[in-house]
Amino acid sequence: MAYQALYRQWRPTDFSSMVAQEAVVATLRNQITTGRIAHAYLFCGSRGTGKTSTAKIMARAINCEQPRNGDPCGECESCQRLAREESMDVFEIDAASNNGIDEIRDLRETVKYPPQQGKYKVYIIDEVHMLSTSAFNALLKTLEEPPAHVVFILATTEPQKLPATILSRCQRFDFGRIPAHQIAGRLREAVEGANATATEESLHMIARAAEGGMRDALSILDMCLGYRSDVDEDLVRSVLGTSDRRFLFRFSEALELEDAASLMQMVDELMRAGREPMVFAKDVSQHLRALLMARCCPDELASLLDLTKEDAQEYVSQAEHFTDARLMRMMELFMAVETDLRWASSPRIVLENAALKACLRTKEVDTAALQDRIVELEKTVQDLTDKISKGVIAAPAAAKPAPAPEKKEPQKEKAAPVQAVLTPTGRSAADTWKEAMSVLKRTQPQVAGFLSFGRMVGSDGTTYHWETPAATPFYADVLNKEDKRDMIAAALTEAAGIPSKFEAHVAGDNRQQSGDQAERSLLSDLEATFSKANVLIQEDAK
User: Fold this and answer.
1) For residues 369 and 329, what is the distance between their CA atoms, to the nearest angstrom?
2) Cα separation, 199 vs 224, whole angstroms
């Protein structure tokens, strides 16, 4: 027997095997059970959501001799004939190729004859929106008052193209997109039925790529199984032509750092790997959407995007480095690329141009870029205001005479060497760090990129302490490696004018800096912002 595609093998044969569309299935079942069969139905929805399958099940059920809870029994003579596609009572018409008035006139002539074996004569008209205006007009009267033995089931992906006169004569059912987790469940059944294996992540990748269409998902799985019987993430990415999630995070990191050189290298890497620019532009748009959602609703991100909590936290961590305005602007750029690439003679140039526009936004003078920079400045001012509102200026900074070394209070001990954060040149630790970051951005952009995922939290004048959130300990491990630590120390030495060291920490672990370092760092930030002469240090009034 010839091989049959997976989406045909797994086409539902009764309402019980339908995935999703619970409201539609419940209504149709009730109508069949009570005998309240309408003369015309309209099934609307995107591709692969079960419109045609539901129409076929409906045709079998209303002609079944002994329906079971609205489902066809599959055993009677009528069900057997319909399963073998030998029945003369069910007609499937493709309106895309039979869209003229002559075909509709022929249909009007045949509806007058009663069914040969079953109870109803069923006409399933797929893609009904493709009918011509004259064909719609010819169908109107028959659709409004057909013979009692005739049932019309119209299916379309574009109901907005149907005349209002057609819509008013039908019972309309809207088929929603199938959730990714339900698609993944059906794919698991198909894999097991094919005696193959697949990882859960690969099935979820296919489900997300199908965008709510079961037929698309089964077709992608069919292509994967055509390569080999064990399906994994790399195979799915190869079949879909999509980019690895790590690559998308790297690309977004380069956008955040405005690192044009790295972006051009990554686009070159993409093209050499044979990836499709349009698919990549779509992937970037989806990644930026995920980052925007991470900023808007971080707590619900895992459920909204069907992600694990660890993956959702990774999106949230990267989203903290962008503003909402910039994310929306970049997403608009890459969404426009999807359209531009359809007509571009050189797709690579279009993709590179969009990447540079998103990267070099500070060089632009248009209103959107100006608004983006204003939003970032407002965020910086708000962060500083929050620090001031927490009493940073009134924090104990001057040392009080201790009565005895063994009875020294921790509070007085913390306020000791504030001036130690100043280098011999009189420069504050904050200024030294900023200059070192500027040097690293020019000479070691990758190291500067890692440093952007944390912040400098303190310095004793020679050793600078940097901290990353507990959710991203990877960056601390990388920066504590000898080669990276030496690079950063060299930049700090150049900026400070004296030999300096660097240490990376993870927030909340045993390596966290002491309280006096944190206070000195906050004081340095204030002095760098308002100048030392405008910062008043006063002792605790207790």
Assistant:
1) 9
2) 12
> pLDDT, tens digit, for every residue of 200-218?
989 988 988 888 899 999 9
Distance CA 455, CA 380 (A): 14
| 342/326 Cα distance (integer angstroms) | 25
Tell me which DSSP letter residue 68 carries. Answer: B
Alpha carbon separation from 54 to 47, 72, 175, 235, 483 (Å, rounded):
13, 12, 10, 32, 63
Helix (H) or strand (E) holding 7: helix 6-9
- Phi, psi at 332, each rounded to 5°: -60, -40
pTM for the whole structure: 0.58
CB 177 within 8 A of CB 51: no
**What per-residue confidence (pLDDT) applies to 474?**
76
The whole-angstrom separation of Cα 64 and Cα 524 is 83
For residue 443 the two structure tokens come to: 């000479």
Give the whole-angstrom CA distance, residue 421 versus residue 459.
6
263: Cβ contacts below 8 Å, ≥ 6 apart: 251, 254, 255, 352, 355, 356, 359
Residue 355 to residue 349: CA distance in whole angstroms: 10
Question: How far is the first Cα of the chain from the last one, in angstroms, to the nearest whole number?
Answer: 91
Give the H/E segment covering residue 463: strand 463-468
**Amino acid at the residue 495:** A
Measured in whole angstroms, the distance separating CA 337 from the mean position of its chain's CA atoms is 18
539 and 396 Cβ atoms separated by less than 8 Å: yes
Q: What is the pLDDT of residue 424?
A: 56
Cα-Cα-Cα-Cα torsion 424, 430, 433, 434, nearest 10 degrees, comes to -120
How far is residue 189's CA from residue 182's CA, in Å, rounded to a whole number? 11
Written as six digits, the tokens of 204 are 């979820």
Q: Which residues of the chain have pLDDT under 50?
A: 363-365, 393-402, 404-420, 510-515, 541-542
For 512, other C-beta atoms within 10 Å of its C-beta total: 16
